[in-house]
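Quick one: structure tokens for this chain, please?
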Amino acid sequence: MDNNVTAEKIKALLENQGITQKELAEKANVTQAAVSHYIKGDRVPRGAILLNIANALNVSTDYLLSIEDSDNDGSDEIESSYRLLARNSNKLTFEQKQRFLKLLLSEEK
């Protein structure tokens, strides 16, 4: 298991979702220091903590732990996102749905 891959994914998800380390720590029921270690790649979250972090960031544990090939076109990630949205669409607030639509319709990345 590559600590740096997991660290980079957590870091990117925090940035993309506008979540602070403190907020992630609260949502995942871990200390802010632990989150800092995960982001630095010093540690990899395991078990229930990994699941809590994945849930807090709305991704699967497989996503956080997987190593993506450089030639991956993102189709697996997109398919996973479709399934995640389908399962949770009724839980999204109107504002979250608007934010998602805005992201989908934006031409800039």
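Residues 45 and 81 are 22 Å apart (CA to CA).
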